[in-house]
């Protein structure tokens, strides 16, 4: 039985969007909710182990399917697949649910969305966990991600789906075993209309990558990061094998935000699952000091 309920809501431009709602343990009151936002080609199911752990600490956890992913509707206009539009969807979601403030956990693209939200709606953010991303990223990792995003064909079996996710992610998760890849595949793929297993995202999300619209850095994003880290508590989680947030980019972030808390997850690349013991311990300690 699922340990969450589904929330359906409508974006400002009329798309049907979805989120998973993990209730806080019974008896817990007064703690701010946690909003989890996944990476570029991922979906809310990425948090299906992390979210219940946080909920047991007494916080409601809301894991979003960003437009074009998971159970959220695909956008007929690919130009809307941008962090600014995604951030607007998050603000609408919070308004619809009457959530004035939340703690954010953003993995990769989810971290960019959190920073973008901070630029215009810092009042919505009480604190943030930024997972393996920053306002400056590595060309190496971006090129790797661009190489597979939007190019994944449907497959005929779960074994083939697991093999695919292993082939493109083994460099980041060298310790994964077959069961890990199968679990990942069942989050990332779903049966399509023809009965084959297809990625759970709109391939048009790749257009920004393929056309060079997603840059390694930008002044607005650096300013948003500084605003977020100057005005709110922030925890940076980084995989030591990450090719998207390499040590050089992480060092820039530490210099720009000397008060930011940082933790590194050993022998993991982009991006940590957040259930690794060192990551989870750091996050739970961070949350313990947030309302």
3D structure, described in words:
By secondary structure, the chain is α/β, with parallel strands linked by helices. It has a single domain, classed as Rossmann fold, CATH 3.40.50. Helices cover 36% and strands 18% of the residues. It is built from ten helices and ten strands. An eight-stranded mixed β-sheet has the order 1-2-4-3-5-6-9-10, sandwiched between helices. Strand 9 (234-239), helix 9 (247-256) and strand 10 (261-265) form a beta-alpha-beta unit. Helix 5 crosses helix 6 (178-188). It is globular. This is Alpha/beta fold hydrolase. Keywords: Hydrolase. Residues 33-277 form the AB hydrolase-1 domain. Pfam families: Abhydrolase_1 (PF00561). GO terms for molecular function: hydrolase activity.
Key features of this structure:
single chain; about 290 residues; alpha/beta; Rossmann fold; eight-stranded mixed beta sheet; two-stranded antiparallel sheet; 10 helices; about 35% helix; about 20% strand; globular
Helix content range of the residues, please?
Answer: 25-40%
> How many separate domains?
1
- What CATH architecture label applies? 3-Layer(aba) Sandwich
Can you count the beta strands? 10
Number of H/I helices: 10
| β-sheet strand percentage | 15-25%
Q: Unreliable runs, pLDDT <50, ≥5 residues?
A: none
Helix-strand pattern: EEEHEHEHEHHHEEHHEHEH
Distance between the termini: 30 Å
**Major beta sheet, strand line-up:** 1-2-4-3-5-6-9-10
Largest sheet: 8 strands, mixed
Tell me the Rg in angstroms: 18 Å
CATH T-level topology:
Rossmann fold
Class by alpha and beta content: alpha/beta
Protein name: Alpha/beta fold hydrolase
GO molecular function: hydrolase activity
Domain AB hydrolase-1: 33-277
Pfam family, one: Abhydrolase_1
